[in-house]
């Protein structure tokens, strides 16, 4: 149901009646003993099934295209033929792309660690400059923020608009604060808002190195490079050639975690030759080489149209779930001031904003009714959402029926929290 | 051939005649255009074949014993059933063992990194104490040393005896130098000498925490836990219960790199509950979880006697290669002062000591004759062998015929360098 809009026009008696009705609905949800989870961007079982050919795909032939034995040690850069796959994902050259183990997050952690402790691409170590800061568009990805927090890198936020980060704010920060050493980005189907950076934004980011101190790194986590839900893809301008021309260091990342098997895929990193060379040199202290056998499996699965076929399969499974989220939100909040939300063309998330001060309450209400949501504040550095309004919805993992059920609970919780607040303020 | 012993009894004319003969032999080796490599402890192709059942072993069933889906994200500790395998390798409990990705070296790097930057098991960060040092028995493993060097941790050496490190020296160092924060160990079939620590040595190491500052870590790289070449195994006393009783923190490591596929195996770490908990908490910032699909494959391959059967296969392939090394060394240097060497019952290496000042010359002579040896000094911190005498021989990878050929060249180079030196000194 829709509540009367705006709520501030309702009399106290009307609000009390709404409250009573919503509390009845909410209690009914509680009584249903639900155990639903909309917290993380995990592929569903059916999505994982799409890549089940992986195990056994090699049919006993463990040789790479160059004849080398993938079972043995070595090859810090990863398999040449897989680097070509990564280069295509990241719109750059295989020579400037490396292929790693199952976690691109680990490559990001290492990159920030190496930049901080040792310096990359010939730049001085960040830590040698005293306190340093990284720009974080918000809302954003909690695991990016966790790495910075752990490494003692201060985070400063800028707004994420519908075409990307607020670039005026970014450029102003760089011009005024020499302690800024980097900027996080999820440029396509951003986590959590789902937006894709516009051509103009990518072009401005590619030039940031000219405003920054040496050692400045654009962190470009292209986790959803080919993860379209809508029939047509949001185009993303290739940053590598622009950055190269402008002398900006961009560290690109991607993985197959949301292409093949989430926990057993392969990862990629790309950047200038100097950046990649220095990262590989550092990695050589921490490992002998990535799992090339799994890399070979991935080449066999993804080559010759395999990737596109799998992504079609993901789209077919994800599109109805995202449609269910949109349908429920529209049914309850279309034209309402109580909730704003995004309508992504891809990725794994829908980002919603409640009225200020209500996100924590909504998450708590949902939890008590058996629906786990990402904790309020998780999409902001230090878990501090100054408005307490943003919540990330991740509908990929539950069944379609469960997404629908969850959304009914969620919408009820938002309405209930909103009426509670109106009553308290009134 | 054997040279007359001792060389110092030879007249200059005799030495010149020997030199001419050895130079002829050496030239013959050079003329053979060899391309042989005895540098790294890499399994041979035949050894890797022993585990070729891995790919396809799951037959489409990706569920762990607890019913969880190994394809999806999560599970920082690794699969329960694989942790049990690791616990057996490391003679400890599954609860205190975690299973990781393909590289135990990465777990070691992370452990030292975390201890240095953040502190582990409740201890203060090493770096908060200013300059710190780690004890390294020598000769030892170059990659252990490389991690310390990169992280700015000073290395102090103690001698590696036939029963383990010189424990008097170790205890003296700990008693006199409060900046010591750890000690490297390869306790079984040590790299490179092949010796296994005696019961008495293990017991003394397990008590080192009582002599040390809080934060002291025994690094126990049990890379060759089940890697016997001789028919009977060198027994290694289990350190975990002893260390637990004495309050010493021991970080144990192992992997299947030299059990299954060298570059595509699984790794293990074990320690006190506090140590493991703090490592897992830190790992959680850098990754979402290890590749559980590959872990599941490994459980399927290694369970129910699978491990023992594979190790029998390795032994059958390695024993003749090690015998060829021993045979060549005995034929050329038995009773001679020119070379001392180890006769390991397992592991991957034979450690030799030339006369002082000759290791670099031998390695250079061999290289010029097409035989790559581990660089002289590699078995010492900072690549500095104060005697310039230690060379690590790794006979696993080449064919038996190539090991035999390589050893002829090697022995010729040692004799040639020795005669050259005697002539120069005489």
List keywords for this structure.
426 residues, Aspartate Aminotransferase, domain 2, Aspartate Aminotransferase, domain 1, 2 domains, homodimer, alpha/beta, globular, 8-stranded mixed β-sheet
What's the domain count of chain A?
2
Alpha-carbon distance between the two ends of chain A: 23 Å
Q: What is the count of helical runs of chain A?
A: 13
Unreliable stretches of chain A: none
Rounded mean pLDDT score of chain A = 97
Order of helices and strands of chain A: HEHHEHEHEEHEHEHEEHHHEEHEEH
The portion of residues forming beta strands of chain A comes to 5-15%
Write out the strand line-up for the largest beta sheet of chain A, numbering strands in chain order: 2-9-8-7-6-3-4-5
Percentage of residues assigned to helices of chain A: 40-55%
Described by strand count, sense and barrel closure, the largest sheet of chain A is: 8 strands, mixed
Class of the largest domain in chain A, according to the CATH hierarchy?
Alpha Beta
Most extensive interface, residues per chain?
A: A-B, 52 and 52 residues
Shape of chain A: globular
Description:
The structure is a homodimer of 426-residue chains. Chain A has 426 residues and is α/β, with parallel strands linked by helices. Chain A has two domains: 7-47 and 309-425, Aspartate Aminotransferase, domain 1, CATH 3.90.1150; 53-305, Type I PLP-dependent aspartate aminotransferase-like (Major domain) (Aspartate Aminotransferase, domain 2, 3-Layer(aba) Sandwich), CATH 3.40.640. Helix content of chain A is 41%, strand content 14%. Chain A contains 13 helices and 13 strands. In chain A, the strands form three sheets. In chain A, strands 2-9-8-7-6-3-4-5 form an eight-stranded mixed β-sheet, with helices on both faces. Chain A has a three-stranded antiparallel β-sheet with strand order 10-11-13, with helices on one face. In chain A, helix 1 (12-31) runs antiparallel to helix 13 and helix 11 (306-333) runs parallel beside helix 13 (400-425). The longest helix of chain A is centred in the last third of the chain and has 28 residues, at 306-333. Chain A is globular and about 75 Å long. At the A-B interface, helix 4, helix 5, helix 9 and helix 10 of A face helix 4, helix 5, helix 9 and helix 10 of B.
